[in-house]
Amino acid sequence: MKAAAITTYGSLNALTILDLPVPTASPHEALIAVVSSTINPVDVKTRLPDTPQEVSTFPAVLGWDLAGVVVTAPPESAWRPGDRVIAMHPPQPTGHGCWQQYVTIDPNLLAAAPTNVDLITATTLPLAALTADQALQRLNLRKGERLLVTGAVGSVGGMAVQLATLSGISVTALVSRPEHQTTAISLGATAAQSEFDSAHEFDAIFDTAGILGQPRLLKPGGKLVTVSDDRIPNALAERARIADHNYVHHDPQRLGELSTLVTTGALRLRVAHHYPLSDIQNAHRTVEAGGLDGKVVISV
């Protein structure tokens, strides 16, 4: 099978296409034919040296998002050959990830793919939606409270805007480019801006862009959750009642519920760019350039 892997830490040249054996599923695993995956910022960080993300073995196939079709599954599982499924499936210590044509996975980690979109689009859901959803759970906002989402048209930020709006939270979107304000409003934000507005203090901030140097944006006693690896400044931590990092965890039941929200039209998925696996270097280059309206997807 074909796979895209990194052979060392480094530049785009560290990415290469390999021929690997098709993995063999144990009696308790499902074998999935991968249709598509995505490139997330964590994949770029994992490729680069001197970041918190580490690789246990090289070559390493990366990729956290999985969309595909069940080939085999344990008889006692909920899945049958031909089922369209999605999952959050982080790179494994064995060197396997989602940027390969077949994966083995615990069937309990799978969720049904949305029925109203193709698998190319569906693969944008797992990591971004679970990250946003779990961060919002940590913030535990009440209807009518005011939330600032930074990086609000990125994959995680865009999910957070939509999910918070569905819960009755008033969302202000902070975006990197003025032309992205319209997208943020279309996702449900009450207001959108591309520069800091010192006139407002928010009940909570969900930071998806690593923007932590503006403590005045959070009202005293407010709440902050960030997906950045950066240290939260003391001035911000002292102002907040809660100031913490968010680390996503598996929740296939909730992923299934989020998939249903896509099927019903309540949650919108966005593909910014689509590349074949063989063009993995250009796909990475696009992610590194930033300013995306949605996710970069690769067909496997």
Automatic annotation (TrEMBL):
SUPFAM superfamilies: GroES-like, NAD(P)-binding Rossmann-fold domains. InterPro entries: ADH-like_N, ER, GroES-like_sf, Lipid_raft_assoc_Zn_ADH, NAD(P)-bd_dom_sf. Pfam families: ADH_N (PF08240), ADH_zinc_N_2 (PF13602). This is GroES-like protein. It comes from Brevibacterium mcbrellneri ATCC 49030. Residues 10-298 form the Enoyl reductase (ER) domain. The lineage of its organism: Bacteria, Bacillati, Actinomycetota, Actinomycetes, Micrococcales. GO terms for molecular function: oxidoreductase activity. It comes from the Bacteria.
